[in-house]
Amino acid sequence: MKKLMTVFALLAAMTISGTIAGTAMAGEKLRIGVEGAYPPFSWVDPDGTLKGFDIEIAMALCKEMGAQCSLVQQDWDGIIPALLARKYDAIIASMSITEKRKKKVNFTQMYYNSPAKFARRKGSGIEITKEGLKGKTVGVQRATTHDDFITAVFGDEVTIKRYGTQDEAYLDAEAGRLDLLLADSIAMNDGFLSTPAGKDWEFVGPGFNDPKYFGAGAGIAVRKGDAKLLGALNKAIDTILANGVYKRINDKYFDFDIHG
Amino acid sequence: MDFTIIADNIGLYIQGLWTTVQLVVLSLIVGMTLAIPMALLRVAKNPLIWALPSAYIYFFRGTPLLVQMFMIYHGAGQFRDALDSVGLWFIFREAYWCALIAFTLNTAAYTAEIIRGAIEQTPFGEIEAARAYGMSKPILFRRILLPSAFRRALPAYGNEVIFMLHGSAVASVITIVDLLGAGRIINSRYYAPFEAYISAGLFYLGLTFIIVWIFRQWEKRWHAHLRPRDTSAAEVAAPSLTLAR
Amino acid sequence: MFDMQGYLPFILEGMKLTVAVALLSLVISVVLGMLGALAKLSKSSAAQTVAGVYTTIIRGVPDLVLMLLIFFGGQIAINEIGDRLGWGYIDISPFVAGVCTIGFIFGAYMTESFRGAILAVPKGEIEAGHAFGMTPGQVFSRITLPQMVRHALPSFGNNWLVLVKATALVSVIGLHDMVFNAGQAGGSTRQPFTFFFVVAMLYLVITGVSDVALRWADRRYSVGVRKA
Fold first, then answer.
1. Which of A166, A180, B146, C118 could form an S-S bond across to A138 if both were Cys, CB 3.0 to 4.6 Å?
2. What value of ipTM does the predicted structure carry?
3. H-type helices in C120-139, by residue range?
4. What angle do CA B25, B30, B34 make, to 5 degrees?
5. pTM of the predicted model, to two decimals?
6. Which class does domain A28-113+216-253 fall in?
């Protein structure tokens, strides 16, 4: 009897794991590169845990694929070199899908899209035109699409200050060292404008999402040649979009549909 | 490795080079101006006179330049309202001035120590002779002590100039586009750490060689009297730049 | 202004890391320093050239540039080498990069310190050692080394103090030392000056303690030596 029960239990376990592990990545160990300095998409709580939209999407996708995921925090400057250097296997850090980046890595389909916007100090009256921006100081995060955009389009008019993290840009903005910020509108809203630190700042101007500079939304980056992981991630994104997991995470952070 | 990206962006490196040179030269000049009176105060007998310079020198030599720069740059943000009310905020608003102030205060402390050490090593005979001539204290300092001290301080000061050049690289951490700042921009734009940082390193290496050469010329000129007449003993006797501070 | 708002333990955690990086780098720098000094003093011109290039590079390139190069580029380099030799993936964490960089940099400074110290050991004693039939290894460990320590101590101590201050740079590559933590705490509380000032004081504590230790070592290794 005991022996039968053991065999039965074993068979049951195999069947169950067989259904969960319906994808190619089942049971595999996966390391995900995240930034941890980009609220509300990723940040580090005072007790040291990583939290945020990107983090939860990462965990949801891993669950969907049946893979065992660990998160690796990495500075934005080195986030792609570290992927290529195999510190981790995928980047889930609100990374925009751009042609320039596609030369080094492959992207999944986009998992959210939001425009970039300028922010200015309340009462400063700065307008987003070539004349309005002349001589102003704009803070951006180094090596982001915002950096590329402002350098290419307004590079001659403004003084650009480049920071390692978006948080550092907020700090200098609050301290009065910047006239304008240019960043993702959602990140800037949740991470700065609606916090006490950003109470003197407001959005100004239109949303920018010209694919030439800002790419086609945020995607997950994997190494070129890692087709298996790419396929599994795409499939998992489709799944969570369809089965309501994405919506649940979306609604936890935003009161509108960020996927678009 | 693809160094054509460096060639394409050489303008950025030149701009960074110019910023680095500015920061280093300006801070050295102002630092030296501050260091001389500080060194003179430091060798005074009266504790009331040397206490404050000593504390200043101890602080700026005992703490990292990076921390000093952060204290001024980020710290200014904390005291923004106070600075605003005395009209000084516009200085601290700019990262460039914050870095310059930090570098100046730092090199002033090290230079003051170097000058002090050199003054204290003045052969007593020179001082005796000056007093025998009836020189007053200010004249003694101006005509005998300081020139003699500067000559003695040359190797150590050469080291200090090089350390200042290397230290200036931290300016890139507070958004200044100096030589290293240019490297960081190239690194993040092209995902090319080797090309970006090796190029920056080569520029710094070049600057260091120039500084070493300049100081060697000065030493040849001002230490001429120290060179032995017999050139076979030249290697042993001629003072030269050493690595250790 | 000096209310730390409960972040003091956080800063002290960082201090532990600062001290750990400093001590480990010291070990590496002493080993490299010894090798470098012996290389510079050896008969082999190849060894002298290598040591010469090493010290020239360190003298000519800022610490921060080397640190960024080793941190960003080191991982890629290790991977390339690892791929060719069949090793698995070896991770270059900020800690490893920081310790290796600082150890590598100060190895060059120690090379100069040790070289001068070895040269200061009276040649007569070394000759006597050879005359007694000691092997070169025995001459080194019984005669040169103990006396060398005394001569090397001042510049060794100097290098240590500069090394401690250099560890602040690891905060730039994201290592959670006390400078990094001060930045975080300062950002969260909007009081960066307070925390950086505290960190500055802690550095003075470290150098103060080092001063006492170095003076003790100087006394101990100068037993029987008459000082001017």
1. A180
2. 0.87
3. 123-131, 136-139
4. 145
5. 0.85
6. alpha beta
